[in-house]
Amino acid sequence: MQIYGINSVNQKNTYFGRKLTKSEEKDYNTNAIRPALKYLGTEEVAMILHGTSYPEAKYDTGAGSPFGTVAANLIPFEILHGFNSNQLGPIGVIRDTQHRSPYQSTISTKNNLFLDFEQLTKDKYANILTEDDIKEVANEVQKSDDNYSNSLFQEAFSNHKYLIRIANKNFKEKLQQNDPAAVKLNKEFDKFKAKKGNLVYKDALFDILSKIYATPNFRKWDDIDKNLIRNLESADQTSISRYKKLTTRHKEDFEDYIFSQFLVDKQIKENKEFRKDLNFKYINDLLVGFSRSDEWANQDLFLEDYKMGCPYGGKYGPQLWEIPVLNPKKLFNSDGSLGDAGTYLKKKLDDALEDCENIRIDHALGLIDPYIYDEKSVKVVGESIDLSQFKGDNISNIPNIDPNGNYKRILDEIILPTLEEHGLNQNQPVWEDLVTETPTFKEIYHNRHNLPGITQLEYMRGEKLRDSENWGLIGSHDSTPANNMIKQDWVRKNDAWNIFYLAGLLNSNPKRAEQRNAFCEKIDKNDMERVKAKFAELFLTCKKVQISFADFFGIDKRYNVAGEENNTNWKLRLNKDYEDSYYDNLASENPTALNMPEILKMAVQAKSDFENVKKAHQAGLSDNEISPNNPENVQEIIDNLSKYENILKEG
């Protein structure tokens, strides 16, 4: 095994993390983790790990892939420790001319950076790359004393362009030589183009134009290019001529983009089959927004001057997200059928669920009563923004924009029926309801449908939402890792982190008062012990659980700071030796990774305490008559968890 490790204060000491043997792995999962989750009533355990944050195994091309070889190795590791799903971020295309946020990605095309180039050296991809090709641009991944790595996006874009150019060239040459593997691959390519070609061609064209103009903001382009798709669809001859010139002058770029989309789509579908065999789900992220290329190719579907934002939290007041807003008048036709904008929104959800088993509904308010603002009322003055004439409100308060209240119909007539078509009931998705609620939102989201949301225990007590359909988590992809979160005064003093509350919740049996008092003292004196208590609370109170990869692996770096432009957002990722790093962390002097059997043992004992107290009170017994003992089956689970808790701590 690897001989290196870290601890929570970044001392470069050497640890020998205790990995489980193969026989122990089976026993660990079958007789400790799974019975504990079943007893607790835990239905879902999802790791929050966005696509580019996946590690790379041998060569570092700059960004990771949730659909490559490494993902196929990571998934069994997650399953071992109790996870049955993974919360990805949006998986659409991001561009090197924009910020790296996946929440600005395309809605139908797939992120080219997810392409696993090592697979292209295999027979099923006609060996269109060699290992030497990859080594030309990518270095071998090195060991590190850190338990994390960082994406290098500009390197990733450059490496992708270089390697896909070689792969496409080799593919064409092999086709000319009638290579059987290449011929087979080409048949798949033809099917892909027949199914998705029109959409991918548009995105490839946008990619070329955004590079020509050095900006993806198509409103700054010349009129002919700004309106190219609209005019092509009306058979405008000048636009047809322009299209031919662009695709001739930039033929290789155009064809490489399309070929890359085919390859990443193929790998995504292969990964889906792999996950199916393991009963492991990917949760895609239905971003509330649309990319510049989506808007450019479908300008007639969007309001011309309005963008979506948030009324609070921005540097100058409201948050100006610059997200295009679908025209409410085009959501539905007069006969009640879907209009062009409604059809487009349905396709957005269909595409998000095409290759993933579940969905996160980003910013649910945006599908019911979005906060929108008039772009013309935002004045840029030097490096500042003048909002003195600002006009913004929720769409339900602007009747001239949505006179028929069509946004109120989206949930009932587009979102919920489409989810049902994909085999999902309304309670299964991760509904991101952490929004500034309006009367319209409450009426539809809560009163009419009683939809679940997110219970974020960073801010609230889990006991308040016990047995709800909410997904529970401590921190999201926007949060500070819990091992740093607890160091903030406002967190330590927050009612949700109160030591007496946590000690009481996790030790409710009066017959275990001594243990409760000792537990209370322990979590008061040791920050990480309080963090563990919060995760035990999470499993005790929430049926559906999410844990960020930074929290699980004990990383002390933040993945994203919401609403802030900085140099580190969206870069954090796992290192190639994530498994060794995890076990080494647990065996260190000050572990920050989550010892799952330790966390689950606390939650199982807490539930057993609660049930003993409940039974005694129902029988009319006094506190002195409550049994301090666990039922035999529960004690067996606790004993097995305790066994593996200690094994994982062994150095």
Radius of gyration: 26 Å
Question: Portion of residues in helices?
Answer: 40-55%
The side-by-side strand order for the widest beta sheet comes to: 14-9-6-3-1-17-16-15
- Separation of termini? 13 Å
Q: Could you state the oligomeric state of the chains shown?
A: single chain
Approximately what portion of the residues adopt beta-strand conformation?
5-15%
Tell me the number of strands.
Answer: 18
Give the overall silhouette: globular
Q: Which structural class should the secondary elements be placed in?
A: alpha/beta
Describe the sheet with the most strands. 8 strands, parallel
Can you count the helices?
22
Q: Uncertain regions: pLDDT < 50 for 5+ in a row? A: 1-12
Could you describe the 3D structure shown?
It is a single chain. The chain is an alpha/beta fold. 44% of the residues lie in helices and 12% in strands. The protein has 22 helices and 18 strands. The protein has helices spanning 22-40, 69-80, 131-137, 153-176, 180-212, 223-226, 228-233, 237-249, 251-278, 292-297, 340-354, 410-421, 439-448, 482-485, 489-492, 499-506, 513-525, 527-541, 549-553, 578-586, 596-618, 632-649, and strands at residues 44-48, 59-60, 85-87, 139-140, 149-150, 281-286, 302-314, 317-326, 358-361, 371-374, 379-381, 384-386, 392-394, 430-431, 454-456, 471-473, 544-548, 572-573. It has an 8-stranded parallel sheet with strand order 14-9-6-3-1-17-16-15. The chain has a 4-stranded antiparallel sheet with strand order 8-7-10-13, with no helix packed on it. α11 (340-354) packs parallel to α12. The model is unreliable at 1-12 (pLDDT under 50).
